[in-house]
Amino acid sequence: MPRPLLSAALIVRDEERFLAACLSSLAGRVDEIVVVDTGSTDRSRDIAGDLGARVLPFRWIDDFAAARNAAVDASLGEWVLYIDADERLVEFDRAEAERLLAARDHACYTVLFRPQRGFTRYREHRIFRNRPELRFRGVIHESLIPALDELVAREGARIGASAIGLEHDGYDGDIRHKHPRNLPLLEKRLAQDPAHVYSWAHLGTSLLGLGDAEGAEQAWRRGLDVVRSRAATTAADGLPYLHLANFLLDCGRDATELLDEACRRFPDNYALLWLRARTLVEAARYREAMPLFARLAAIDPDALGDGPMAFDRSIFAANAHAALGLCAFRLGMYDQSAAHYARAETLAPGDVAIRAKRVLAEGRASDAAARR
Amino acid sequence: MDWSICLERASGIEIRAAPDGIVVYDPARDRLHYLNPTAALLLESCDGTLPAAELPALLAAAFDLPAPPTGEVELPHNTARPGAPRRGARRLTFRCCTGVALLCKVSTGTHRRGHTMSTNPSLERFLERVEPGRRDALRKIIAGAAVYTTPVVASFTLESLDGQAQAQVSNQAVSVPASSGWSLAALAGMVAAAGALLLRRRRRG
Questions:
Q1: Facing B191 at nearest CB: one of A125, A194, A352
Q2: Same domain membership, residue A248 and residue A108
Q3: Which residues of chain A neighbour B198 with C-beta distances below 8 Å?
């Protein structure tokens, strides 16, 4: 019997709300589905079995990589797609996948991943060759990338980009129940790898979610210390800056210097750019804010999928033009303001606030023209 | 509420005509309001001489309704102060007009007008009681509305920007090697910081 081409590997625990939709999105697209259950007390195992998955029990040992690797170990396919129960396979062309997976020199393909509704997409390493040396590492935020990097260095294996699309649903709701579970794992991870900035950022949000604002700020500042000690940065290194800046502004504290530094270090982090521009507006520094908003307005959020970072789409398009309209209005440039609001209105036709602002700016522009 | 109070538009507000209502800007508070034609008619009627009790009757006359829509016009209790001075509460009276619509129940029902503007006798009788300089403005607003709808006001600050500064990256992100400036001392500092945080957590726990 020929070996299956593509296995989907999942780890689940009490995922009955999401699991059926996930497995349904995989049906007919992958050759087998392996579900490792780490201790569900709900109907997850029944749902998985009913939908054709091979279900394996796994004793939870506070180690996501161990559970994830158990699912990979049980996969029979030449390739493995790893996916979570609260994710969906939304774009998948089987013929194209077969063509990609036939390439002998590739060890991994990235997919286009949307981490949350209303966000742009980024690239995730999700489909990889089922070889024993390609396994996950890390008790939390488990990653295939260190093993992949080693394989690339040793054998010159390639990592390709696919048009396969995944979307995440689970974090759109209340995630407070995950903070107590994640906290000890994050602390363990950071004890082993204190330079893991992503975990510092996550530790801060978990502590804040548990009501420890002081601890959250401390964690984000620890992340900043790591970033500042480096010459090179990755997209993840911008996270503690973003979380800390949002936190400071929410507390009514000044974040100007922090955002100046953050935007210097991460010029392509558009969330930081938006926040910086907003603080400039709040300081009535409209001329300085305008080029930042203009940059955001010029971005097509749908074209950002090949980058390493996803952003809330609300900082682009209509809202960026509306922000430009506001700046121009405050500077008395009513023609420009009206034009920006009009552009924003075409991008968000149902937005009453933008329409009202456009009407006001047009009225001011008309008055100014009459005076000339 | 006290239906005997007279409402008056606040001074200093800027009113702009929109195709389907009016836009009102209050620069003192940086508040922008969109008023649908019915709400606009209410605002235009607030000249300081018209008792609030007349407002439902005005709408009934303007749109030839079978009965005054009293419930949809009723002002919020906190703004309808008994004995409030007619002239001394200009800001308050504008809040009333806004609040009227904001606190109205949303109605999906509409009432077709039975008369054209020029032949609506009850409206003409009503307009005769209004200051002559205001009549044209009222006629224009009513003419722009094909049907009666619940008065609606949507309010914003001009500065309101709706973008959310949120970003996510892959949780597979790995640690980047330290730069040449990344000394052993700095590494030790990070480990110590992590240890201190863990210790603090344990003490709290």
A1: A194
A2: no
A3: 187, 191
Distance from CA of B22 to the nearest CA of A (A): 8
Return the H-helix or E-strand segment holding B58: helix B54-63
What range defines the domain where residue A120 resides? 6-172
Non-local (6+) Cβ contacts of A371 within 8 A are none
ipTM comes to: 0.89
| Same-domain pairing of A321 and A211 | no
For residue A1, tell me if it sits in a domain: no
Whether A31 and A99 share a structural domain = yes
Instruction: Tell me which chain B residue has its CA closest to the CA of residue A138.
Output: B172
Q: With contacts defined as CB-CB under 8 Å, which chain B residues touch A218?
A: 197
**pLDDT per position as a tens digit, A41-55:** 999 999 999 999 999
Q: Who among A237, A319, A362 is closest to B162 (CB)?
A: A319
Per-residue pLDDT at B7 exceeds 60: yes
| DSSP run (H or E) holding B146 | none
* Average pLDDT rounded to a whole number, residues B195-199: 58
Number of H helices, E strands in chain A: 15, 9
Domain boundary among A240, A267, A294: A267
Q: What is the C-alpha separation between B116 and B126, in angstroms, rounded?
A: 15
Same domain, A134 and A249: no
Cβ–Cβ < 8 Å for A107, A158:
yes
Q: Is residue A190 part of a domain?
A: yes
Q: What is the pLDDT of residue B96?
A: 41
CATH number assigned to the domain comprising residue A203 = 1.25.40.10
* Domain ranges across chain B: 6-157
Tell me: do A59 and A37 sit in the same domain: yes
Q: In a mutagenesis test of the B interface, which of A269, A313, A355, A358 is the best target, namely the one with the most B β-carbons within 10 Å?
A: A355
Say yes or no for a CB contact (<8 Å) between A144 and B172: yes
